[in-house]
Each structure stands twice: as structure tokens, then as C-alpha cells.
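JOB MANIFEST
job_type = single_chain_structure
chain_count = 1
residues = 215
[input]
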Amino acid sequence: MSSPRIDTEDGVAWHLDALVERVPLLLPMRDRVGVVSPRVNPTGFAGLAKVVCGQQLSVQSAAAIWGRFEKLPGATAPEGYLALSEEEVRGIGFSRGKFVTMRGVAEAVVSGALDFATVDALPAEEAIAALTALKGIGPWTAEVYLLFCAAHPDVFPAGDLALLKAAHHGLGLDARPTIKEMIALAAEWAPHRSAAALLFWRYFAALRDREGILL
């Protein structure tokens, strides 16, 4: 069968089955966490806005700001967003940088320079390149969008601190890997890197919740 997206539990399980068969070192992590569920968010402009909203914020703060953002008239569509003033968007908690970033994204969509349906279907490296060409969109933001919104099967946000901590503990490494080292490790898990990321996030949550571990 063709490689499924990761927007269902069956899709995630398919990738994890293939991954642990190739990399048995990950099997204890999978046994520890049990079922690994997908994280499904809106695709397109709304999905990227949600990822940008959460940059450098706690989960709780991001959720609160996003809840207010969604209530702004038209905010989750590019045309509607462009009709909002900076004061309105910043008033719900967006920084100026985030406001400007999403304005650039909205302008790119409206002009036809950015088509999310096309980007979502690209191979990972091409999709990341297309998104990071937008001012204010870095690799982590692009990768998290592709993973959580586009359900891309082969993305690993190596700059995510929780993933680095999970790798340190779960892989039995002597030290927390650098981002460069994590990219190299994850390269061996292609084309199943998104499922690996979901597994690592779930493993990190299990360690934190069950053991109160400080990583």
C-alpha cells in the first residue's frame, strides 16, 4: 500500500509498525506509551496561524490567545485577516512579529503566490522550503504545520525541546542531542519521521506525567 498520512490512529500505527521493525531501539518507547494518536488541526491559513500563535508560548497561553483570535471576524481566512487592523490582532495577544508574519502569509495566499493544497502535497523538503520562503516562518513552524495540520508522514521538528529531551532519555544517549545531531538521527527514520515525532512527544509526556522527571 502507499504510505498513509498521519491523520488517523491507523495511519500512525502503520508508520510506527514499519519504523520499529527497522529500528528496534524504538520498540521500548512504543511499548511504554501504548497507542499514539494523531494531532489534527485545520489546514491552510488557519492551521498555520494556529502554529504561529503558539510559537514560544506555553500550551495554556497559546490556547487562550488562539481562542480569542478565532473570535475576531474573518481572522482565520486570509481575506478576512487582511481586513483586520494591527490593533485588533495585537489586542488579543499576538506580538507585532506574529501579526506581520501572518499578514505576509495572507497576502501571499490572496496574490496566488502561496497555495496550501499544493504545498501540503509536496515532499517534506520542498514543502518546508516553500513555507520558510515566507518572512517570519522558520523551519520549526513549517515542520509543525506540515505534521499537525497537513498530516505529512515524514517530518521531524528537530528543534523542538521536548523531542530533544525525549531522545536523550528514550535512546539512552549520554547527553541531550544538538539540533544538528537530532536531524542526523531522524534522517535514518525516513519516510516515517512524523510518526517518530508523535511517539517521542507521547514518550516525553509519559515521563513527565508518571515520573515527574526533570529532563
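[summary]
Residues 33 and 206 are 7 Å apart (CA to CA).
The radius of gyration is 18 Å.
exit_status = 0
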